[in-house]
Amino acid sequence: MTPYVEAARPRTLPAALAPVLVGTAAARTPLTDVSWLRFALALLVALALQVAVNYANDYFDGVRGVDTEARVGPRRAVASGLVAPGAMKRAIAAALAVAAVAGLGLAVLVGWELLLVGLAAMLAALGYSGGPRPYASAGLGEVFVFVFFGLVATVGSTYVQDEGFGLVAVLAAIPMGCLATALLVVNNLRDIPTDREAGKVTLAVRLGESGTRRLYVGLVAAALVVLLPLALLTGEGWLALPLLSLPLLWPGVQLVRHAALGPRLIEALERTAKGQLAYAVLFALALAVATGLTESRT
């Protein structure tokens, strides 16, 4: 694995794929009429922004001395000397350029209002761990992830298909935000000791170990519970299908609840990512079936 692939943190990439799948399936546009070009561009934007965030976090935490040899998680490219700071800055710019070009394509196809959303997402990506007051160090990283990798990515993926969105897309965005945030929470749980020592006051540092563990469990539970109002709203029992992802999510929950701070939480991150992807695939399938049934009844 090259240093740049490693720095992109492949385990976190389902957080970019999942909301695009679900948002596309939540569109009123029947599956047979989905614009796969718009889908591909939306997915490219999401993946490029995820990589840009990961590169930026690697760069800023590396040059600020947040990532040290005491860190338990996967090695960081800048801190370990695998990638020079200047080279990582260029990689961040390249990832943002890919997101910008794909976003421009969507703006041409859908509407120029998407440029404002894209600009906000890019600024948020850089502000996560960069700038004079990175908001990850103010305990607001989870808010960023929930908003941009949950609400914006899911509802935005519906918008690029329908050129509008409804309550179903908004409700579908909530579990996507919860599971994406759970990925960040388990990552920050593992890093509590080194983040605290480096002065990086994440939400996990503020909540402490036990509070962060409870937050993770609550996020996973919320992703499952929100299926009930969605099923009641649509009248489609198919929307309970994502509950079948529980066997994949459960090992991550158990690890976060009981594992000591250390390497085993890397496994929890992996389990969470796999569970999130399974949930998203099942959810997208359920939404597509429900949309098809609705269309056939009208």
Description:
The chain is mainly α and 298 residues long. The protein has one domain (3-297). It has helices spanning 3-7, 14-25, 36-63, 85-109, 113-127, 141-162, 167-190, 192-198, 203-225, 227-234, 246-258, 264-297. Helix 11 packs antiparallel against helix 12 (264-297). The longest helix has 34 residues, at 264-297.
How far apart are the termini?
A: 51 Å
Taken together, the total number of domains comes to: 1
How does the major sheet shape up? none
SS-based class: mainly alpha
The share of residues in extended strands comes to: under 5%
Listing every helix as H and every strand as E from the N terminus to the C terminus, the arrangement reads HHHHHHHHHHHH
Low-confidence stretches: 293-298
Number of helices: 12
Main attributes?
298 residues; mainly alpha; disordered C terminus
Summed up:
With 298 residues, the protein is an all-alpha fold.
What is the fold's blueprint, element by element?
Layout: H1 3-7, H2 14-25, H3 36-63, H4 85-109, H5 113-127, H6 141-162, H7 167-190, H8 192-198, H9 203-225, H10 227-234, H11 246-258, H12 264-297
Family: Belongs to the MenA family. Type 1 subfamily.
Keywords: Cell membrane, Membrane, Menaquinone biosynthesis, Transferase, Transmembrane, Transmembrane helix
Protein name: 1,4-dihydroxy-2-naphthoate octaprenyltransferase
